[in-house]
Amino acid sequence: MAWKSVSVLLRLAREPVLLSTPKGGSLQQRCGFRKAARKPESKKVEEDLGSPHTESAESAVQRRTATPHWEQQALPSSPRAFSRLIKPLVFTVGFTGCSFGSAAIWQYESVKFRVQSFFDQIQADWLEKLHPQKRGDIRKEINQWWNSLSEGKRTVTGIIAANVIVFCCWRVPSLQRTMIKYFAANPASKTLCSPMLLSTFSHFSFFHMAANMYVLWSLSTSAVSMLGQEQFMAVYLSAGVISAFASYVAKMATGRFGPSIGASGAIMTVLAAICIKMPEAKLGIIFLPMFTFSAANAIKAIIAMDTAGLVLGWRFFDHAAHLGGAIFGIWYVLYGNELIWKNREPFVKLWHEFRTRGRGGGGGGGGAADV
Q1: Cα separations (Å) of 96 from 27, 91, 186, 231?
Q2: What is the pTM of this model?
Q3: Sheet holding 6-7, edge to edge
Q4: What is the DSSP string of 146-212?
Q5: Contact partners, residue 249, CB within 8 Å, separation at least 6
Q6: What are phi and psi of 298, to 5 degrees?
Q7: What is the pLDDT of residue 5?
Q8: What percent of the chain shows pLDDT beyond 90?
Q9: Which residues are part of the catalytic machinery?
Q10: φ, ψ dihedrals at 27, nearest 5°
Q11: In this structure, are residues 45 and 71 in contact, taking their beta carbons and an 8 Å threshold?
């Protein structure tokens, strides 16, 4: 398949939001929505959002802006208490396994559905000839547009829609505490596991979301053609959790705690996989389409930049999440596909036997065609 030049924005970032404290530590930014004078609240709220502190003149000005600021959360008793990473590690391994297992089942069911749909389509075509639809029918127009999209673009449409919904939820003041608790990944939070996945769909800045979704849309056709719809979704969701875990490890090691949001860790996995699989493909930079470079050089430059950012302590991007996503993408293309996806047939046979037994039928196991 011919590869078209893809615009890639180097601002792929799970955005960490940090503030320096007088003691040299780092605080999460406080929520920027105006609140009434503090009243005694439940212990649960205090535990989740931290103790109150005196508001400075600078923070009073910040409260008037549209940018949210993050509440201070209670840090672990020891910044290097790596025992806190055991639960996220188990969640990462378990979720990754479930993602690929679900993808294998999804592919099995999709094959059966396509066979049934073939006969249903024949019947639908026959009925349409008897009762033709009116010209300009809205549903027909939508179906034609949808069918004109590549399989990759149809696949990521749901991901983009989920990101837009979460972006809108950030705009609702009453949801701020819920969003900070569940849609921002932070190893200092009491909620460790679910944000590792949910933060992959979380953006506060419109430009951040638009840039990430544009890159995902641009890469979707090649990525899904290379992996298949089911395998792509398993890789993407697993990459979001794995990149968040890499961020957790780096923050625990350095003591620089703070929330991270954004899909760029997962997108880095997709980009790295394509760059390794198609090293001669030409990539470009958004707003600078006249500059192009090979995919092989692009992934080397991105990894070098994120490594430097991690070592030098740059805080504008979550460089550890970027590196975690890129390394997972490279590993999966070189080794993971053979180790995981190519060996899914025994699991699919078990599912086939479970399905046929549940329907009271016999029959032998059926394998799954490789993608």
Answers
A1: 31, 8, 20, 12
A2: 0.74
A3: 6-7, 282-285, 288-294
A4: HHHS-HHHHHHHHHHHHHHHHHHHHT-GGGHHHHHHHSSB-TTSS--SHHHHHGGG--SSHHHHHHH
A5: 85, 320
A6: -65, -45
A7: 42
A8: 43
A9: 264, 322
A10: -115, 150
A11: no
